[in-house]
Amino acid sequence: MSEAIKLFQYNTLSALMAGLYGGTLTVGELLEHGDLGIGTLDSIDGELIVLDGKAYQAKGSDGVPTVVEVSPDVKVPYAAVVPHQAEVIFRQRYAMTDKELAERIESYYDGVNLFRSIKIHGHFAKMHVRMIPRSTPDTKFAEVATRQPEYTQENISGTIVGIWTPEMFHGVSVAGYHLHFISDDHTFGGHVMDYIIDEGIVEVGPVDQLDQRFPVQDRKYLFAKFNMNELKEDIEKSE
Ligand SMILES: [Zn+2]
User: Fold this and answer.
1) Gap from CA of 37 to ligand 1 centroid (Å)
2) Using CA atoms, how far apart are residues 59 and 190, in angstroms rounded to an integer?
3) How many angstroms is it from 107 CA to the middle of ligand 1?
4) Which end of the chain is more exposed for a tag (fewer CB within 10 A), N or C?
5) How far apart are the CA of 47 and the centre of ligand 1, in A?
6) What is the pLDDT at residue 1?
7) How many Å lie between the centroid of ligand 1 and the Cα of residue 160?
């Protein structure tokens, strides 16, 4: 039997929502657990994109979208990575919206109760992304989320990476797709809002286990008082 594929999730979305933006895990350590994934950076400074074992940061706060490679010593407050292994691979030969492609992808799932890794390389007629802007813990995530810079590029080639989460794990992660994009030339990227794909290769990977890690030495996390009702509302609003 082949080795179990573990989705490595560092920290929780709830902690992020509650304002715990400080990075506590290095990117170097994160990359030991997977080669594809998503996340954010210290002080929620943009979107983390993990593609083919490398980590990139997409930012857009200064009015210009930028992408830079992240060095191994940079710390992240939240990320999810997986050693992606395509189980279903198909070619999308004609244009589709993100909603249509999502339906096609889901038609290959065995039920709806397992996480999946998603990788889509292709050419996009439209790619609409956003980037969470750097912030301090005194501003709530839901509030920061209302003023995220958004950018749209047309006719762009690149890769979408991310995770699909089953409904019953909503809260631990966001139910449904959490996808980030990076262009082939590494100049444009971010958290995927919507897109139109012209054509591309879609890969769906299995996840056998969830390896949920916690910032066990972070006093802020340990003694944080979470208002669960408020957190649930904030997750609905922000994601
Ligand atoms: Zn995201």
Assistant:
1) 10
2) 7
3) 24
4) N
5) 6
6) 56
7) 11
Residue 155 has pLDDT above 80, yes or no: yes
Distance 80 CA to ligand 1 centre (A): 10
Domains of the chain: 6-238 (3.30.1330.80)
Q: Which of 47, 48, 49, 53 is nearest to 34 (CA)?
A: 53
According to DSSP, residue 51 is labeled E
> Above pLDDT 70, what percent of the chain?
100
CB 61 within 8 A of CB 134: yes
Average pLDDT over every residue of 77-91: 97
CA of 213 to the centre of ligand 1 (A): 18
The answer to whether residue 128 scores a pLDDT higher than 60 is yes
CA of 237 to the centre of ligand 1 (A): 14
Report which residue type is found at 41: L
